[in-house]
Every structure is written in C-alpha cells, then in structure tokens.
Amino acid sequence: MKVLFATSEAAPFAASGRLADVSSALSCAMRKRLIGCRVALPLYEDVPDKLRENLKFVVSLSVPVAWRRQYCGVYKTNHNGVIYYLLDNQYYFKRCGLYGHYDDSERFAFFSRAVLEMIEHIDFWPDILHSNDWQSALVPVYYNLFYRRRQGYENIKNVYTIHNIHHQGKFGLEILEDVFGIPRQSAALVEHDGCINLMKAGIEAADCVTTIGPTYLKEICEPWQTHGPYDILKDHKRKLHEILSSIDDESCNPESDTHSWGRCANEYIRLYRGLLKNAENDK
Predict the structure, then answer these.
(1) What is the pLDDT of residues 107-147, one digit of tens each?
(2) Region for residue 7 given its phi and psi (left: phi exceeds 0; alpha: psi -120 to 50; beta: otherwise)
(3) What pTM value is reported for the model?
C-alpha cells in the first residue's frame, strides 16, 4: 500500500503548529510499519538552508491554475526514512511566512493541483491521497473533477483530515472560476453559506474524513463548535472517523501506549485498507 500525504507544513521543513508535527510523525510511524508513505508540501522561503542543501531536483511541471499555467519544480529529500517532495514556485512561495498572504486562495489551489500533476512524473503511484486542513482540501475536489478518469489515477482513494476547524478556507464566490478553476456548474461542491468553503469541499469530496485527538470529533459535531458546516458534518456522519494522536514514538512505546504515534499509524493503516478493500469489492 502506498500513501501520499499532502500537507501545507511538515517538521522540520516548515511549521506553524501541530499539523507540522502530525505530518512528520505519522509518516515516519507508517514507514516503520513498512507502509509506503511519502509527503508533499510547498517549498517555502522559510525552509532552512541546511535542509535545502539535501534537496534533489526531480522534474519541472506546467500546472494548470484556472485559465493559466504555472511552473512547478519538484524536489525531493529523505528525512528520517521518509521521502518528502517539496513543490517550488517562487511567485507563490518565495515570501516570508506560510499563511496570511492576500493570495492564499491561489497559492494553495496551485499546490493542490501540483500534487496531483506530480504523481505521473514520479516513481510513486499512491493508493491513498491523504489531505489535511483547508490548504490541501482541493486535492480530493480536483481529483473528482479532473483526474478520476485519467489513466493511472482511477483507483486512488482520498482521505481528508480536519486538524483545526476554526480555519476553513473561506473565500468569495467571485473567484470560483478565475482562481480555483472550478466550473460554475460545479459550484455546489465548494459553496456553503454564500461563499466558498474549502474545508466543506474537502469533507464532501473525500472518501473518508478523520479528526485528531480523543474528543475532537465529538466537539466539532456540536453546532456551536463547527463554525459553520455543522449540516455538512451531519450529512456525512458515516464517513467520519476519529484517530488518536499524541507524541512521537521516541517517547512512547507504540505497542503498549494507545496515545503514541505508532497506535495512530496503526489505526490509519486499518482505515486505508478498509477503503481499498471496499473499493475492490465494489468492482
């Protein structure tokens, strides 16, 4: 089984919060369990120079971003036994800070498309695409719209994880076509409460939705905690799963401590295998 983890941050390359720790620790725990797990993230200006020295150029791509195409340089490196792909575009990522820029909508639309375009140019065809928070929520959306029937992509399953429901990627509907490249007739995929909501889109488009921690799923399924898409979570309750996560395996025994990253990886592996088994049975 092969898993491609799409994330906007991963330690030690770029980090602003817990997502970076999850991205690196979970992928490392999966590799220790002989699961082919690789990670894709943007090549930000903030990536330390000492880590840049180990990057190896893989390929350059022309990535569709709505009506235009943008350059993407794909670099890879190995960290703690995990292969990371860092996607370069200086127009979008050669600036200080990971988030909070005026064009974040376009930056992460580019990143999501680049992840999908990259797959057919690397030696790694994933069975599972695992996306995280609003920044990569468009990966399952674009997969369903543009890649599902492309040769080689047909049998990929999409998992989407909510780490922080407070930040949902909300934007005006006026940029639906010119920035996100989503046809007007498909607006229902991303629209919620009069605006574009990328987290809502990820929930709807993914085959399975997960949350982190022992109580987070229960919390976000309460109307006053969802900050908007309560109805969407309620409608997709059957595909919601809670996965425990905590600290890395160096501090806990993954076989005996239910809060270790090892246990978290085991739960995700069972979830992935269940998705693939169901897909095989549906054929």
Answers:
(1) 999 999 999 999 999 999 999 999 999 999 999 999 999 99
(2) beta
(3) 0.92
Provide the domain limits for residue 43: 2-282
CA distance 58 to 124: 12
Q: How many residues in the chain?
A: 283
Give the separation between CA 128 and CA 157, rounded to whole angstroms: 5
What total of structural domains would you count in the chain?
A: 1
* 201 token code pair: 């889109």
The CATH number that applies at residue 180 is: 3.40.50.2000
Whole-angstrom CA distances from 194 to 102, 104, 191 are 20, 19, 7
User: DSSP labels for 149-197?
Assistant: TSTTTTT-EEEEEES-TT---EE-GGGTTTTT---GGGGGGTEETTEEE
Which residues, in sequence order, are bridge partners of residue 21? none
- Amino acid residing at 231: D
Exposure of 271 by Cβ count < 10 A (0-12 exposed, 13-18 middle, 19+ buried)? Answer: middle
Instruction: Tell me the residue type at 5.
Output: F
Give the model confidence (pLDDT) of 139-167 as tens digits. 999 999 999 999 999 999 999 999 988 88
54 strand-pairing partners: none
